[in-house]
Specification:
The protein has helices at 4-7, 53-63, 67-70, 96-105, 121-129, 163-177, 202-205, 207-211, 215-223, 232-254, and strands at residues 81-85, 109-113, 133-137, 153-158, 180-185. Helix 6 links the parallel strand 4 (153-158) and strand 5 (180-185). A five-stranded parallel β-sheet has the order 2-1-3-4-5, sandwiched between helices. The radius of gyration is 20 Å and the shape is globular. The two termini are 38 Å apart. The chain has 255 residues and is of the alpha/beta class. Helix 4 crosses helix 10.
Length: 255
């Protein structure tokens, strides 16, 4: 039932849980499976009423609209609120503490969020829905940009060898949702791979060569065995852009 609140919005009828319901159900028609239009996107021309990704965002709003939880969102102190997604295992921020300090120096109210399968989606929704900026390293958790309000800021840190995937799966869909998208491209010297390979190795100088070898090679090197350490001076420039856009977003929201 993790997604129960969302699924309920997609049907006029009660959700049937076949795991715990042994009754026989009779229907005149059944559609089995899912349709995909694009990565985290909706093609309105293929929808019965020309719905868009914004309509899906409204579905999320309706699913998680709860006054008691709304008050559980991030408190507003006048500063733009930034949520940083903290990864486990691979593609972690090696200098996370310094990044948090830098973001706070830039004027952000920073919250660290560690994805946990047991966390209620409602709570995640209200944390992100009440923030102005979401930042994290490319990975599945970036899907949560869907919980951000259109007009807010999404900063994706892109490790070596993942630029196409990062833009295709999260960057472009985020822009279609109406988020202000910024990317920070990791340089070879900012990647932990520079500790394992010489500076002239193809892994560092030409990731496309490795990617062309196939998914498993790319996954093994760039997804499973790479961490990042963004240059603080470079990252400061990105955070400054994010702050400027976040403040403008806040002004628009305030009317």
């Amino acid at each position: 039932m993790k997604y129960g609140d969302i699924v309920k919005q997609l049907s006029n009828y009660p959700v049937v849980d076949f795991e715990n319901d042994d009754r026989i159900h009779c229907f005149p028609e059944v559609t089995v499976g899912l349709h995909i239009h694009d990565e985290l996107a909706i093609d309105s021309s293929l929808m019965p009423q020309n719905q868009t990704i914004h309509d899906f965002r409204n579905v999320l709003d309706q699913a998680y609209k709860d006054d008691s939880l709304e008050s559980a969102g991030l408190p507003f102190s006048g500063k733009p609120r930034m949520v940083i997604i903290v990864r486990y295992g691979s593609r972690i921020f090696q200098n996370l503490d310094q990044i948090v300090t830098l973001a706070e120096d830039e004027g952000f109210n920073v919250t660290l969020w560690k994805p946990d399968p047991t966390t209620e989606l409602k709570k995640i929704y209200w944390t992100l829905n009440s923030s102005e900026v979401l930042m994290g390293v490319h990975g599945a958790a970036m899907t949560h940009f869907l919980f951000m309000r259109p007009g807010s800021v999404f900063v994706q840190v892109i490790p070596l060898g993942t630029k196409w995937a990062a833009e295709t799966y999260y960057g472009d869909p985020a822009k279609k949702l109406g988020l202000q998208y910024l990317e920070y491209l990791i340089k070879p010297e900012e990647s932990s791979l520079s500790d394992k390979y010489s500076k002239n190795d193809t892994v560092l100088t030409n990731p496309e060569t490795i990617i062309k070898k196939g998914w498993w090679e790319m996954k093994e090197i760039y997804l499973e065995h790479q961490d990042v350490q963004p240059s603080l001076p470079r990252l400061r420039k990105t955070l400054h852009k994010a702050k400027t856009r976040a403040i403008n977003f806040m002004k628009l929201r305030a009317g």
